[in-house]
Amino acid sequence: ILNVEQSPQSLHVQEGDSTNFTCSFPSSNFYALHWYRWETAKSPEALFVMTLNGDEKKKGRISATLNTKEGYSYLYIKGSQPEDSATYLCAFNNAGNMLTFGGGTRLMVKP
Amino acid sequence: EAQVTQNPRYLITVTGKKLTVTCSQNMNHEYMSWYRQDPGLGLRQIYYSMNVEVTDKGDVPEGYKVSRKEKRNFPLILESPSPNQTSLYFCASSLLAERNEQFFGPGTRLTVL
Fold first, then answer.
1. B57, B41, B46: which is closest to B90 by C-alpha?
2. Which residues does chain B have within 8 Å of residue A93's beta carbon, measured at their own beta carbons?
3. Which of B4, B91, B95, B101 to mutate against chain A (most A CBs within 10 Å)?
């Protein structure tokens, strides 16, 4: 079983704060790194799929970077809003086509 | 509307009574997968399928079976459910496994008494 770790496990921030969290994954047999946003009582929804070392992707106030050589990805949220409250999941895809998820970072944004 | 559907959404059953959770997608996706979500453990992959008649074990396949007879359907079968299979189950699909986002179904909450 591949080791995909996310930190922190949970995070409380004030509305307007910018924040970031980390996903670490094996640096060998890398195919892709996925980020998903999972709101309570809903299904996970894709944010980004990143495939190249040095990739940076952005969607509105959310962005992500990828370092495949050292095995980590950062997710950034600029100017957090209460509607950003969710669990953010990363998932590592290796050459074997399996997708291994990290435990998630639960973000709570206080108004 | 492009979507992944699962049925049933909620199920309470008893130990040993065979059950099937259906999953269907209308996006012509090759890749389909089943996950279970347990508190503190995150999403864990049970089985996945790269295409029709091609299935592979994920991290936690014990006690489960799957089949992929048609591209759109990927049912999850529990031949003899046990209480440790009480969980929230998600089906997902994508065009290809590694470089495309997964589309998740709404989830099936299963309780095995």
1. B46
2. 97-99
3. B101
